[in-house]
Amino acid sequence: MANTSAPSNPTQLKRTLKARHLMMISLGGSIGTGIFLASGGAIHNAGPGGALLAYSAVGIMVYFLMTSLAEMAAFMPVAGSFKEYANRFVDPAFGFAIGWNYWYNWAITIAAELAAVVLIMKFWFPDSPSFIWSAIALVIMFGFNYMSVKGFGEAEFWFALIKVITVILFIVTGFLMILGIMGGEAVGFTNFTMEDAPFNGGFFAILGVFMAAGFSFQGTELLGVAAGESEEPEKNIPKAISTVFWRILLFYILAIFVIGMILPYTDERLLSDAVTVSPFTLVFERAGFAFAASVMNAIILTSVLSAGNSGMYASTRMLWDLARDGKAPKFLGKLDRRGVPVNALIATALVGSLAFLTTFFGDGAVYIWLLNASGMAGFVTWVGIAISHYRFRRAYIAQGRDLNQLPYRASWFPIGPLLALILCIFIILGQNFQAFTGEGIDWNGVLVSYIGLPLFLIVWLVYKVKHKTKLIPLKECDFKQS
């Protein structure tokens, strides 16, 4: 077992993450396969206008969620983040369930990224054994997280920077092609007005993209977890959240606009998840860049490693905080002398590895169930953020505190968190609306898509009944910043 003694204060994480690390951690968590691969399917199904509308609507929701998180994280920067806020301002049982829900969300995401690495490497080495690539990826992710938190932040900074540069180059190249400066004649708005464009498939097609867009933006909340190890969180957290949101929104909106302008939404290749026909690859190839598929495959590889790296960080910190709070085995709450929760890191890596191994059994049904439960867990976390912030602000006022003393104040309260809450619940309930629109209800589809919801409710209610917890009165909410 790791040596957990330290010369001073070994029970606290070290605040060594800088503002640039925070910004790139959040960017790295949300710019990934959602923009590089899934954006093509969104445009094909709903048309370029439908995809833009859906992503913009989800972007507004995420803006309110992130400003809510910024207000709480700037005032109370802790590694437990959403778990701690739910614990103090809603109900200890709700905090318990949110904490385990978030840990599970990212632990299973590690498994998903290990599976994705195998598919990416098969592009170059089609006959190689799968386990070699997943093992190498796991060692890389574990290694970055085993280093000091500053080492993790530095690795994530460069991973995310590669993605940001790629998206910027793509947008610039795309606009040059639209104007006819690159890739032949100017395309103009032809693809935005062809056939049923800009909207295709009607309301349900846009609704489907709306659901998928929510997954693309997941990861922006990583800043809340990183707050516990950041320098000057009262300044850096609000700054990072506000700038990151606008950058992510612009990246997604401009990238989808470029794809919709250059590629007709009727192109069947947009439906494929293969890197060779990624919308980014197709646009770069049309612009005349040789080896576009290989370059995009390498970039998507860094994107996957970045997501797994961030996932391992977030889930490890949440598990450590749960243990420190007596809501997970005590040995998981120990730090080594560098301030790294090694025991929680090992446990998280093992769970992610075991989940990944289920892809090799049968038809992978167990893995699909795990992955669907994980996807639902991300939205449940967002619901927790919205509820916690609404209660946080009301309790702050009820206790006679001065709003001007908050390091950062979210605008549009209470409309912001309430609108985000309603949209999150709408996304959760509409995860697989197709299962209800056929001749009969697809019960298997319902179970696979919604399994995460009853799991969360069971964990919440069992803890609530066992410990007899109640909704905390506003005047009794704990604002201590320890």
Automatic annotation (TrEMBL):
GO terms for cellular component: membrane. It is a multi-pass membrane protein. GO terms for molecular function: amino acid transmembrane transporter activity. Its main location: membrane. Signal peptide: none annotated. The keyword Ribonucleoprotein does not apply. Residues 21-470 form the Amino acid permease/ SLC12A domain. It is found in: Membrane. Gene3D superfamilies: Amino acid/polyamine transporter I. PROSITE patterns: AMINO_ACID_PERMEASE_1. Coiled coil: none annotated. InterPro entries: AA-permease/SLC12A_dom, Amino_acid_permease_CS, APC_YAT. Keywords: Amino-acid transport, Membrane, Transmembrane, Transmembrane helix, Transport. The keyword Ligase does not apply. It comes from the Bacteria. The chain crosses the membrane at residues 21-43, 55-82, 103-125, 131-149, 161-182, 202-223, 244-266, 286-308, 340-361, 367-390, 411-431, 443-463. PANTHER family: AMINO ACID PERMEASE, GENERAL AMINO-ACID PERMEASE GAP1. This is Lysine-specific permease. It comes from Mesobacillus foraminis.
